[in-house]
Design brief:
This protein has about 575 residues and is α/β, with parallel strands linked by helices. Helix content is about 55%, strand content about 10%. The protein has five domains: about 170 residues, 3-Layer(aba) Sandwich (Rossmann fold); about 60 residues, Helicase, Ruva Protein, domain 3, CATH 1.10.8.60; about 120 residues, Up-down Bundle (Zinc Finger, Delta Prime, domain 3), CATH 1.20.272.10; about 60 residues, no CATH class; about 120 residues, DnaA, N-terminal domain (GMP Synthetase, Chain A, domain 3, 2-Layer Sandwich). The protein has a five-stranded parallel β-sheet with strand order 2-3-4-1-5, covered by helices on one side.
Length: about 575
Protein backbone atom coordinates (compact mmCIF):
# COMPACT_ATOMS: atom_id res chain seq x y z
CA UNK A 1 0.00 0.00 0.00
CA UNK A 2 1.31 3.47 -0.91
CA UNK A 3 2.36 5.93 1.79
CA UNK A 4 -0.40 8.08 3.30
CA UNK A 5 0.46 11.28 5.12
CA UNK A 6 -0.34 11.47 8.82
CA UNK A 7 -3.08 14.09 8.40
CA UNK A 8 -5.05 11.68 6.18
CA UNK A 9 -4.13 8.40 7.83
CA UNK A 10 -5.16 9.58 11.31
CA UNK A 11 -8.16 11.66 10.29
CA UNK A 12 -10.97 11.64 12.92
CA UNK A 13 -13.62 8.97 12.35
CA UNK A 14 -16.06 9.70 15.22
CA UNK A 15 -17.21 12.88 16.96
CA UNK A 16 -14.91 12.40 19.96
CA UNK A 17 -11.82 12.29 17.74
CA UNK A 18 -12.23 15.93 16.67
CA UNK A 19 -10.04 17.61 19.28
CA UNK A 20 -10.99 20.90 20.89
CA UNK A 21 -14.51 20.98 19.42
CA UNK A 22 -16.54 19.09 22.01
CA UNK A 23 -19.14 21.87 22.17
CA UNK A 24 -19.95 21.23 18.49
CA UNK A 25 -19.76 17.44 18.71
CA UNK A 26 -22.17 17.37 21.65
CA UNK A 27 -24.68 19.62 19.88
CA UNK A 28 -24.66 17.54 16.69
CA UNK A 29 -24.97 14.23 18.55
CA UNK A 30 -27.94 15.55 20.53
CA UNK A 31 -29.56 16.85 17.33
CA UNK A 32 -29.30 13.37 15.78
CA UNK A 33 -30.57 11.67 18.93
CA UNK A 34 -33.55 14.04 19.25
CA UNK A 35 -34.19 14.01 15.48
CA UNK A 36 -33.69 17.78 15.30
CA UNK A 37 -31.33 17.75 12.31
CA UNK A 38 -31.29 21.11 10.50
CA UNK A 39 -31.31 21.33 6.72
CA UNK A 40 -28.14 23.49 6.56
CA UNK A 41 -25.04 23.95 8.71
CA UNK A 42 -22.07 26.27 8.32
CA UNK A 43 -18.76 25.42 9.98
CA UNK A 44 -16.35 28.33 10.35
CA UNK A 45 -12.93 28.60 11.94
CA UNK A 46 -9.15 28.54 11.34
CA UNK A 47 -7.51 26.05 9.02
CA UNK A 48 -6.82 22.49 10.16
CA UNK A 49 -9.13 22.39 13.18
CA UNK A 50 -11.58 19.74 11.93
CA UNK A 51 -14.31 21.47 9.90
CA UNK A 52 -14.35 19.10 6.93
CA UNK A 53 -13.71 16.08 9.16
CA UNK A 54 -16.72 17.01 11.30
CA UNK A 55 -18.84 17.42 8.16
CA UNK A 56 -17.90 13.91 6.96
CA UNK A 57 -18.59 12.42 10.40
CA UNK A 58 -22.01 14.10 10.44
CA UNK A 59 -22.74 12.78 6.93
CA UNK A 60 -21.82 9.24 8.03
CA UNK A 61 -23.77 9.52 11.30
CA UNK A 62 -27.06 10.40 9.55
CA UNK A 63 -26.62 7.63 6.93
CA UNK A 64 -24.99 4.88 9.01
CA UNK A 65 -26.85 1.57 8.97
CA UNK A 66 -25.77 0.54 12.49
CA UNK A 67 -24.74 3.63 14.47
CA UNK A 68 -23.05 3.14 17.84
CA UNK A 69 -24.04 5.72 20.49
CA UNK A 70 -24.90 8.28 17.78
CA UNK A 71 -21.44 7.75 16.24
CA UNK A 72 -20.98 6.14 12.81
CA UNK A 73 -19.85 2.53 12.99
CA UNK A 74 -17.27 3.01 10.18
CA UNK A 75 -17.85 -0.65 9.26
CA UNK A 76 -21.01 -0.66 7.13
CA UNK A 77 -20.92 -0.11 3.37
CA UNK A 78 -22.28 3.47 3.67
CA UNK A 79 -19.58 4.52 6.17
CA UNK A 80 -16.81 2.95 4.09
CA UNK A 81 -18.00 4.60 0.88
CA UNK A 82 -18.16 8.03 2.54
CA UNK A 83 -14.74 7.57 4.17
CA UNK A 84 -13.20 6.59 0.84
CA UNK A 85 -14.93 9.44 -1.00
CA UNK A 86 -16.92 7.28 -3.46
CA UNK A 87 -20.44 7.61 -2.07
CA UNK A 88 -23.08 8.88 -4.49
CA UNK A 89 -25.10 10.30 -1.61
CA UNK A 90 -22.36 12.53 -0.16
CA UNK A 91 -21.14 15.10 -2.68
CA UNK A 92 -18.10 17.19 -1.74
CA UNK A 93 -17.72 20.41 -3.74
CA UNK A 94 -14.71 22.72 -3.79
CA UNK A 95 -16.13 26.22 -3.56
CA UNK A 96 -12.97 27.78 -5.00
CA UNK A 97 -13.14 25.92 -8.32
CA UNK A 98 -16.94 25.59 -8.56
CA UNK A 99 -17.89 29.14 -7.71
CA UNK A 100 -20.01 30.21 -10.66
CA UNK A 101 -23.74 30.38 -11.18
CA UNK A 102 -23.70 27.46 -13.65
CA UNK A 103 -22.38 25.05 -11.00
CA UNK A 104 -25.09 26.17 -8.56
CA UNK A 105 -27.76 25.65 -11.21
CA UNK A 106 -26.53 22.07 -11.66
CA UNK A 107 -26.69 21.63 -7.88
CA UNK A 108 -30.29 22.89 -7.83
CA UNK A 109 -31.22 20.32 -10.44
CA UNK A 110 -29.51 17.43 -8.64
CA UNK A 111 -31.19 18.07 -5.25
CA UNK A 112 -34.52 17.01 -6.74
CA UNK A 113 -33.38 13.39 -6.87
CA UNK A 114 -33.38 11.37 -3.68
CA UNK A 115 -30.42 9.46 -2.21
CA UNK A 116 -29.44 6.22 -3.87
CA UNK A 117 -28.67 4.17 -0.75
CA UNK A 118 -28.69 6.32 2.38
CA UNK A 119 -31.31 8.34 4.23
CA UNK A 120 -29.90 11.76 3.37
CA UNK A 121 -28.23 13.29 0.35
CA UNK A 122 -25.47 15.46 1.83
CA UNK A 123 -23.73 18.35 0.03
CA UNK A 124 -20.44 19.45 1.61
CA UNK A 125 -19.11 22.71 0.12
CA UNK A 126 -15.58 23.63 1.23
CA UNK A 127 -14.44 27.28 1.18
CA UNK A 128 -18.00 28.38 0.51
CA UNK A 129 -17.00 32.04 0.82
CA UNK A 130 -15.36 31.75 -2.62
CA UNK A 131 -18.74 31.52 -4.38
CA UNK A 132 -19.71 34.54 -6.43
CA UNK A 133 -22.52 36.87 -5.46
CA UNK A 134 -24.67 35.54 -8.26
CA UNK A 135 -24.05 31.94 -7.16
CA UNK A 136 -25.08 32.75 -3.59
CA UNK A 137 -28.27 34.41 -4.84
CA UNK A 138 -29.07 31.39 -6.99
CA UNK A 139 -28.65 29.14 -3.94
CA UNK A 140 -30.92 31.14 -1.62
CA UNK A 141 -34.29 29.58 -2.45
CA UNK A 142 -33.00 26.01 -2.52
CA UNK A 143 -31.15 26.56 0.75
CA UNK A 144 -34.21 27.96 2.49
CA UNK A 145 -36.65 25.23 1.43
CA UNK A 146 -34.69 22.16 0.33
CA UNK A 147 -36.27 18.69 -0.09
CA UNK A 148 -36.50 16.72 3.15
CA UNK A 149 -33.82 14.29 2.05
CA UNK A 150 -31.15 16.99 1.45
CA UNK A 151 -28.58 18.23 3.99
CA UNK A 152 -26.20 21.13 3.26
CA UNK A 153 -22.91 21.51 5.18
CA UNK A 154 -20.75 24.55 4.38
CA UNK A 155 -17.16 25.01 5.59
CA UNK A 156 -15.22 28.27 5.48
CA UNK A 157 -12.20 29.98 7.01
CA UNK A 158 -13.59 33.45 6.28
CA UNK A 159 -17.19 33.50 7.44
CA UNK A 160 -17.33 37.29 7.24
CA UNK A 161 -17.31 36.97 3.43
CA UNK A 162 -20.47 34.85 3.42
CA UNK A 163 -23.60 36.97 2.79
CA UNK A 164 -25.89 37.43 5.76
CA UNK A 165 -28.78 36.05 3.68
CA UNK A 166 -26.93 32.71 3.57
CA UNK A 167 -25.91 32.80 7.24
CA UNK A 168 -29.48 33.42 8.37
CA UNK A 169 -30.60 30.18 6.68
CA UNK A 170 -27.94 28.01 8.38
CA UNK A 171 -27.02 26.86 11.85
CA UNK A 172 -23.57 28.33 12.46
CA UNK A 173 -20.83 26.57 14.44
CA UNK A 174 -17.56 28.34 15.21
CA UNK A 175 -14.55 26.03 15.51
CA UNK A 176 -11.77 26.98 17.92
CA UNK A 177 -8.02 26.66 17.71
CA UNK A 178 -6.92 23.40 19.29
CA UNK A 179 -5.17 23.78 22.68
CA UNK A 180 -1.44 23.08 22.72
CA UNK A 181 -1.74 20.25 25.24
CA UNK A 182 -4.25 18.35 23.09
CA UNK A 183 -2.04 18.64 20.00
CA UNK A 184 0.94 17.32 21.98
CA UNK A 185 -1.11 14.41 23.30
CA UNK A 186 -2.38 13.52 19.83
CA UNK A 187 1.12 13.66 18.30
CA UNK A 188 2.44 11.46 21.10
CA UNK A 189 -0.31 8.93 20.35
CA UNK A 190 0.47 8.95 16.61
CA UNK A 191 4.21 8.56 17.27
CA UNK A 192 3.56 5.51 19.46
CA UNK A 193 1.33 3.93 16.82
CA UNK A 194 3.90 4.63 14.09
CA UNK A 195 6.79 3.27 16.18
CA UNK A 196 8.62 6.61 16.29
CA UNK A 197 10.58 7.68 19.38
CA UNK A 198 10.28 11.41 20.06
CA UNK A 199 11.15 13.50 23.12
CA UNK A 200 8.79 15.92 24.88
CA UNK A 201 10.64 19.04 23.79
CA UNK A 202 10.28 18.07 20.13
CA UNK A 203 6.58 17.39 20.59
CA UNK A 204 6.14 20.80 22.19
CA UNK A 205 8.06 22.60 19.43
CA UNK A 206 6.10 20.87 16.66
CA UNK A 207 2.78 21.61 18.38
CA UNK A 208 3.68 25.28 18.89
CA UNK A 209 4.71 25.59 15.24
CA UNK A 210 1.26 24.27 14.29
CA UNK A 211 -0.32 27.39 15.90
CA UNK A 212 -3.52 25.65 16.95
CA UNK A 213 -3.95 23.66 13.72
CA UNK A 214 -3.80 19.88 14.02
CA UNK A 215 -3.26 19.42 10.29
CA UNK A 216 -0.31 21.84 10.29
CA UNK A 217 1.23 20.08 13.30
CA UNK A 218 0.83 16.67 11.66
CA UNK A 219 2.45 17.92 8.44
CA UNK A 220 5.41 19.29 10.42
CA UNK A 221 5.62 15.97 12.29
CA UNK A 222 5.90 14.14 8.95
CA UNK A 223 8.66 16.50 7.83
CA UNK A 224 10.70 16.01 11.00
CA UNK A 225 10.17 12.24 10.93
CA UNK A 226 11.46 12.11 7.35
CA UNK A 227 14.59 13.98 8.43
CA UNK A 228 15.31 12.12 11.67
CA UNK A 229 13.97 8.64 10.95
CA UNK A 230 12.75 6.48 13.81
CA UNK A 231 14.18 8.64 16.61
CA UNK A 232 13.46 12.37 16.82
CA UNK A 233 15.51 14.59 19.16
CA UNK A 234 15.18 18.25 20.07
CA UNK A 235 18.39 19.14 18.23
CA UNK A 236 17.14 17.53 15.02
CA UNK A 237 13.80 19.31 15.37
CA UNK A 238 15.54 22.68 15.74
CA UNK A 239 17.73 21.93 12.75
CA UNK A 240 15.03 20.91 10.30
CA UNK A 241 12.60 23.66 11.33
CA UNK A 242 15.34 26.33 11.73
CA UNK A 243 14.02 27.22 15.19
CA UNK A 244 15.84 29.94 17.11
CA UNK A 245 17.53 28.56 20.22
CA UNK A 246 16.14 29.93 23.50
CA UNK A 247 19.67 30.89 24.56
CA UNK A 248 19.51 33.83 22.14
CA UNK A 249 16.43 35.18 23.93
CA UNK A 250 18.15 35.08 27.31
CA UNK A 251 21.13 36.86 25.73
CA UNK A 252 18.76 39.65 24.63
CA UNK A 253 17.51 40.26 28.18
CA UNK A 254 21.12 39.95 29.35
CA UNK A 255 21.87 43.08 27.30
CA UNK A 256 19.70 45.08 29.69
CA UNK A 257 21.86 44.00 32.62
CA UNK A 258 25.25 44.43 30.91
CA UNK A 259 24.52 47.48 28.75
CA UNK A 260 27.09 46.14 26.27
CA UNK A 261 26.36 47.77 22.90
CA UNK A 262 29.15 45.80 21.22
CA UNK A 263 27.52 42.54 22.29
CA UNK A 264 24.20 43.85 20.87
CA UNK A 265 25.72 44.36 17.40
CA UNK A 266 27.48 40.98 17.55
CA UNK A 267 24.21 39.28 18.52
CA UNK A 268 22.42 40.84 15.53
CA UNK A 269 25.22 39.67 13.21
CA UNK A 270 25.00 36.14 14.61
CA UNK A 271 21.25 36.03 14.01
CA UNK A 272 21.75 37.07 10.38
CA UNK A 273 24.68 34.71 9.76
CA UNK A 274 22.74 31.70 11.06
CA UNK A 275 19.99 32.40 8.58
CA UNK A 276 17.25 32.98 11.14
CA UNK A 277 14.19 34.87 9.98
CA UNK A 278 14.31 38.30 11.67
CA UNK A 279 10.56 38.50 12.24
CA UNK A 280 10.52 34.99 13.68
CA UNK A 281 13.40 35.93 15.98
CA UNK A 282 11.63 39.08 17.19
CA UNK A 283 8.44 37.08 17.69
CA UNK A 284 10.44 34.67 19.85
CA UNK A 285 11.89 37.57 21.87
CA UNK A 286 8.35 38.89 22.41
CA UNK A 287 7.22 35.46 23.64
CA UNK A 288 10.28 35.30 25.89
CA UNK A 289 9.42 38.67 27.46
CA UNK A 290 5.83 37.55 27.83
CA UNK A 291 6.98 34.44 29.72
CA UNK A 292 9.10 36.56 32.06
CA UNK A 293 6.19 38.94 32.60
CA UNK A 294 3.78 36.10 33.39
CA UNK A 295 6.23 34.60 35.89
CA UNK A 296 6.83 38.02 37.44
CA UNK A 297 3.13 38.87 37.72
CA UNK A 298 1.74 35.49 38.80
CA UNK A 299 4.74 33.54 40.14
CA UNK A 300 3.16 30.53 38.39
CA UNK A 301 5.39 28.82 35.83
CA UNK A 302 2.64 26.36 34.80
CA UNK A 303 1.14 29.08 32.60
CA UNK A 304 4.20 28.96 30.32
CA UNK A 305 4.09 26.90 27.12
CA UNK A 306 7.69 25.68 27.45
CA UNK A 307 9.50 22.53 28.49
CA UNK A 308 9.95 21.73 32.23
CA UNK A 309 13.66 22.63 32.02
CA UNK A 310 12.88 26.05 30.57
CA UNK A 311 10.26 26.67 33.26
CA UNK A 312 12.92 26.28 35.93
CA UNK A 313 15.18 28.70 34.11
CA UNK A 314 12.45 31.31 33.81
CA UNK A 315 11.75 31.06 37.54
CA UNK A 316 15.46 31.54 38.29
CA UNK A 317 15.59 34.54 35.95
CA UNK A 318 12.59 36.19 37.61
CA UNK A 319 13.88 35.57 41.13
CA UNK A 320 17.03 37.52 40.30
CA UNK A 321 14.79 40.60 40.21
CA UNK A 322 16.78 42.44 37.54
CA UNK A 323 13.71 43.57 35.57
CA UNK A 324 10.43 44.89 36.95
CA UNK A 325 7.00 44.39 35.39
CA UNK A 326 7.15 47.96 34.03
CA UNK A 327 10.53 47.26 32.42
CA UNK A 328 9.24 44.09 30.78
CA UNK A 329 6.17 45.88 29.44
CA UNK A 330 8.31 48.63 27.91
CA UNK A 331 10.68 46.09 26.36
CA UNK A 332 7.77 44.08 25.00
CA UNK A 333 6.30 47.21 23.40
CA UNK A 334 9.66 48.03 21.79
CA UNK A 335 10.09 44.53 20.35
CA UNK A 336 6.52 44.35 18.99
CA UNK A 337 6.89 47.75 17.32
CA UNK A 338 10.17 46.62 15.75
CA UNK A 339 8.55 43.39 14.54
CA UNK A 340 5.82 45.39 12.79
CA UNK A 341 8.37 47.80 11.30
CA UNK A 342 10.54 44.97 9.94
CA UNK A 343 7.63 43.75 7.82
CA UNK A 344 7.78 46.84 5.59
CA UNK A 345 11.41 47.86 6.02
CA UNK A 346 13.77 47.59 2.99
CA UNK A 347 16.65 47.03 5.47
CA UNK A 348 15.32 44.74 8.23
CA UNK A 349 18.83 44.13 9.57
CA UNK A 350 19.20 47.81 10.47
CA UNK A 351 15.91 47.67 12.36
CA UNK A 352 17.10 44.61 14.29
CA UNK A 353 20.41 46.24 15.22
CA UNK A 354 18.68 49.44 16.31
CA UNK A 355 16.27 47.43 18.49
CA UNK A 356 19.07 45.49 20.20
CA UNK A 357 21.07 48.69 20.77
CA UNK A 358 18.02 50.31 22.37
CA UNK A 359 17.68 47.28 24.64
CA UNK A 360 21.37 47.54 25.59
CA UNK A 361 20.91 51.26 26.43
CA UNK A 362 17.62 50.59 28.20
CA UNK A 363 16.92 52.77 31.27
CA UNK A 364 15.16 50.87 34.04
CA UNK A 365 11.93 52.25 35.39
CA UNK A 366 12.00 54.24 38.64
CA UNK A 367 8.91 53.64 40.73
CA UNK A 368 7.10 56.75 41.98
CA UNK A 369 6.45 54.94 45.26
CA UNK A 370 10.17 54.41 45.84
CA UNK A 371 10.78 58.04 44.95
CA UNK A 372 8.23 59.25 47.48
CA UNK A 373 9.62 56.86 50.08
CA UNK A 374 13.07 58.31 49.54
CA UNK A 375 11.71 61.82 49.94
CA UNK A 376 9.84 60.86 53.11
CA UNK A 377 13.03 59.45 54.58
CA UNK A 378 14.81 62.66 53.69
CA UNK A 379 12.11 64.72 55.37
CA UNK A 380 12.27 62.62 58.52
CA UNK A 381 16.01 63.14 58.63
CA UNK A 382 15.53 66.90 58.27
CA UNK A 383 12.83 66.94 60.94
CA UNK A 384 15.11 65.20 63.44
CA UNK A 385 17.89 67.73 62.83
CA UNK A 386 15.70 70.85 62.88
CA UNK A 387 15.03 72.99 65.98
CA UNK A 388 11.45 74.15 66.73
CA UNK A 389 12.71 77.61 67.66
CA UNK A 390 13.97 78.22 64.16
CA UNK A 391 10.59 79.47 62.99
CA UNK A 392 10.43 77.03 60.02
CA UNK A 393 7.14 75.27 59.35
CA UNK A 394 7.77 71.49 59.01
CA UNK A 395 5.10 71.10 56.31
CA UNK A 396 6.70 73.85 54.24
CA UNK A 397 10.13 72.28 54.61
CA UNK A 398 8.74 68.89 53.55
CA UNK A 399 6.92 70.15 50.47
CA UNK A 400 9.72 72.43 49.30
CA UNK A 401 12.35 69.77 49.91
CA UNK A 402 10.33 67.21 47.95
CA UNK A 403 9.98 69.62 45.05
CA UNK A 404 13.70 70.40 45.13
CA UNK A 405 14.63 66.70 45.26
CA UNK A 406 12.47 65.90 42.22
CA UNK A 407 14.10 68.80 40.35
CA UNK A 408 17.52 67.45 41.25
CA UNK A 409 16.65 63.93 40.08
CA UNK A 410 15.24 65.29 36.83
CA UNK A 411 18.36 67.36 36.23
CA UNK A 412 20.59 64.35 36.92
CA UNK A 413 18.63 62.31 34.36
CA UNK A 414 19.45 64.94 31.73
CA UNK A 415 23.08 65.20 32.73
CA UNK A 416 22.76 68.50 34.63
CA UNK A 417 23.42 69.25 38.28
CA UNK A 418 21.69 71.32 40.93
CA UNK A 419 23.88 72.77 43.63
CA UNK A 420 22.77 73.26 47.21
CA UNK A 421 22.54 77.01 46.63
CA UNK A 422 19.53 76.50 44.34
CA UNK A 423 17.46 74.80 47.04
CA UNK A 424 14.38 76.63 48.39
CA UNK A 425 15.06 79.12 51.19
CA UNK A 426 13.34 77.03 53.87
CA UNK A 427 15.55 74.07 52.98
CA UNK A 428 18.73 76.11 52.77
CA UNK A 429 18.25 77.28 56.34
CA UNK A 430 18.64 73.62 57.39
CA UNK A 431 21.10 72.15 54.88
CA UNK A 432 23.37 75.08 53.98
CA UNK A 433 26.57 75.70 55.95
CA UNK A 434 26.36 78.58 58.50
CA UNK A 435 28.59 80.87 56.48
CA UNK A 436 26.23 80.55 53.45
CA UNK A 437 22.91 81.09 55.19
CA UNK A 438 22.94 84.87 54.78
CA UNK A 439 23.88 84.82 51.08
CA UNK A 440 21.39 85.73 48.42
CA UNK A 441 20.71 83.37 45.54
CA UNK A 442 21.41 84.93 42.16
CA UNK A 443 20.95 83.82 38.56
CA UNK A 444 23.88 81.90 37.12
CA UNK A 445 24.43 81.08 33.41
CA UNK A 446 24.51 77.28 33.92
CA UNK A 447 21.70 74.76 33.49
CA UNK A 448 20.44 74.86 37.08
CA UNK A 449 16.88 75.96 37.85
CA UNK A 450 16.95 79.50 39.29
CA UNK A 451 14.33 81.19 41.50
CA UNK A 452 12.72 84.35 40.09
CA UNK A 453 10.28 86.95 41.35
CA UNK A 454 7.26 88.48 39.67
CA UNK A 455 8.76 91.97 39.97
CA UNK A 456 12.02 91.02 38.28
CA UNK A 457 10.33 89.17 35.42
CA UNK A 458 7.50 91.57 34.47
CA UNK A 459 9.81 94.05 32.66
CA UNK A 460 11.13 91.20 30.52
CA UNK A 461 7.74 89.77 29.53
CA UNK A 462 7.32 91.97 26.46
CA UNK A 463 10.85 91.21 25.30
CA UNK A 464 10.05 87.52 25.61
CA UNK A 465 6.87 87.55 23.49
CA UNK A 466 8.53 89.84 20.92
CA UNK A 467 11.32 87.30 20.46
CA UNK A 468 8.69 84.60 19.95
CA UNK A 469 6.84 86.69 17.33
CA UNK A 470 9.90 86.78 15.08
CA UNK A 471 9.96 82.97 14.69
CA UNK A 472 6.49 81.57 15.41
CA UNK A 473 3.65 84.00 14.90
CA UNK A 474 0.93 81.52 15.92
CA UNK A 475 2.60 81.02 19.31
CA UNK A 476 2.97 84.78 19.75
CA UNK A 477 -0.78 85.18 19.12
CA UNK A 478 -1.55 82.90 22.05
CA UNK A 479 1.03 84.50 24.36
CA UNK A 480 -0.19 88.04 23.57
CA UNK A 481 -3.54 87.14 25.14
CA UNK A 482 -2.07 85.06 27.99
CA UNK A 483 -1.42 86.27 31.54
CA UNK A 484 1.40 85.68 33.99
CA UNK A 485 -0.18 83.67 36.75
CA UNK A 486 2.71 82.95 39.09
CA UNK A 487 6.49 83.35 39.31
CA UNK A 488 8.06 81.24 42.05
CA UNK A 489 10.64 78.54 42.77
CA UNK A 490 12.48 79.03 39.50
CA UNK A 491 9.35 78.53 37.39
CA UNK A 492 6.89 80.74 35.53
CA UNK A 493 3.26 79.77 35.21
CA UNK A 494 1.31 81.25 32.31
CA UNK A 495 -2.49 81.20 32.14
CA UNK A 496 -4.28 80.91 28.76
CA UNK A 497 -7.93 81.17 27.82
CA UNK A 498 -8.65 77.84 26.10
CA UNK A 499 -7.65 74.19 26.46
CA UNK A 500 -6.63 74.23 22.78
CA UNK A 501 -4.16 77.04 23.46
CA UNK A 502 -2.81 75.06 26.41
CA UNK A 503 -2.10 72.03 24.20
CA UNK A 504 -0.36 74.15 21.58
CA UNK A 505 1.91 75.80 24.12
CA UNK A 506 2.81 72.44 25.65
CA UNK A 507 3.98 71.26 22.22
CA UNK A 508 6.21 74.34 21.97
CA UNK A 509 7.52 74.08 25.54
CA UNK A 510 11.13 73.37 24.50
CA UNK A 511 11.19 76.26 22.03
CA UNK A 512 9.69 78.69 24.57
CA UNK A 513 12.12 77.55 27.27
CA UNK A 514 15.07 78.34 25.00
CA UNK A 515 13.61 81.75 24.10
CA UNK A 516 13.04 82.51 27.77
CA UNK A 517 16.54 81.40 28.66
CA UNK A 518 17.94 83.92 26.18
CA UNK A 519 15.92 86.72 27.78
CA UNK A 520 16.36 85.85 31.47
CA UNK A 521 19.89 84.46 31.25
CA UNK A 522 19.14 81.17 33.03
CA UNK A 523 17.13 78.01 32.58
CA UNK A 524 13.60 78.54 33.89
CA UNK A 525 10.73 76.05 34.16
CA UNK A 526 7.65 76.94 32.10
CA UNK A 527 4.18 75.77 33.05
CA UNK A 528 0.78 76.48 31.49
CA UNK A 529 -2.74 76.39 32.86
CA UNK A 530 -6.21 77.31 31.63
CA UNK A 531 -7.26 80.64 33.13
CA UNK A 532 -10.63 81.14 34.78
CA UNK A 533 -12.65 83.40 32.41
CA UNK A 534 -13.94 85.46 35.37
CA UNK A 535 -10.39 86.45 36.30
CA UNK A 536 -9.27 89.74 34.72
CA UNK A 537 -6.06 90.59 36.53
CA UNK A 538 -2.84 90.46 34.52
CA UNK A 539 -0.87 88.78 37.29
CA UNK A 540 -1.64 87.29 40.68
CA UNK A 541 0.45 87.62 43.77
CA UNK A 542 0.74 85.07 46.48
CA UNK A 543 -1.84 86.91 48.62
CA UNK A 544 -4.46 86.88 45.85
CA UNK A 545 -3.75 83.24 45.12
CA UNK A 546 -4.25 82.29 48.73
CA UNK A 547 -7.44 84.34 48.93
CA UNK A 548 -8.87 82.60 45.85
CA UNK A 549 -8.39 79.25 47.55
CA UNK A 550 -6.20 77.72 44.84
CA UNK A 551 -5.00 78.11 41.30
CA UNK A 552 -7.26 79.64 38.69
CA UNK A 553 -8.80 77.08 36.41
CA UNK A 554 -6.35 74.42 37.64
CA UNK A 555 -7.69 70.97 38.43
CA UNK A 556 -4.48 69.91 40.17
CA UNK A 557 -4.78 72.02 43.32
CA UNK A 558 -5.60 68.93 45.39
CA UNK A 559 -2.60 66.94 44.17
CA UNK A 560 0.54 66.18 46.13
CA UNK A 561 3.30 68.79 45.57
CA UNK A 562 5.53 66.12 44.04
CA UNK A 563 2.78 65.16 41.58
CA UNK A 564 2.28 68.81 40.63
CA UNK A 565 5.96 69.22 39.94
CA UNK A 566 6.12 66.03 37.86
CA UNK A 567 3.16 67.31 35.81
CA UNK A 568 4.98 70.58 35.17
CA UNK A 569 8.34 68.92 34.47
CA UNK A 570 7.15 66.30 31.99
CA UNK A 571 4.03 67.94 30.55
CA UNK A 572 1.79 65.21 31.91
CA UNK A 573 -1.89 65.61 32.74
CA UNK A 574 -3.75 64.27 35.78
CA UNK A 575 -6.13 61.37 35.14
CA UNK A 576 -9.85 62.06 35.07
CA UNK A 577 -11.67 61.06 38.25
Amino acid sequence: MSYIVTARKWRPLVFEDVLGQQHIATTLRNAIRLQRIAHAYIFSGPRGVGKTSMARILAKAVNCRSPHEINPCNECDMCKEITEGRSLDVIEIDGASNRGIDEIRNLRESVRYGPSKGKYKVYIIDEVHMLTKEAFNALLKTLEEPPSHVLFIFATTEVHKVPSTILSRCQRFDFRRIPLEQIVERLRFIAQKEGISIDEESLLRIAKRGEGSMRDAQSIFDQVASFAGGTITAAETKSVLNIVDEEFFFRVTGLVKSGDTREAVKLAAEIINRGYDIREFLSGVAEHLRNLLVCKATNDETLLEVSPQMRKRYIEEVHQGELSEEDLLRLLRLVVETENAVRWSPQPRYRLEACLLQIAKFDKTVSLDSLLQRLDELYESLSRNSEPSGGIQPSKVKNEKMMYEVKRMTAERHGADISASTAPDAVQEQVAPPEKQGDKVGISPDNSFQPLSLESFLPKWNDFIDSVRKEKIHVWTILSEAKIYEVANGSIRIAVREKLDLDRLKKERQFLTERLRGIVGAKVLLDFIVRNPRENSSALGEGEKAASGGEAGDSTNDLHPVEKLIIREFGAEPLEG
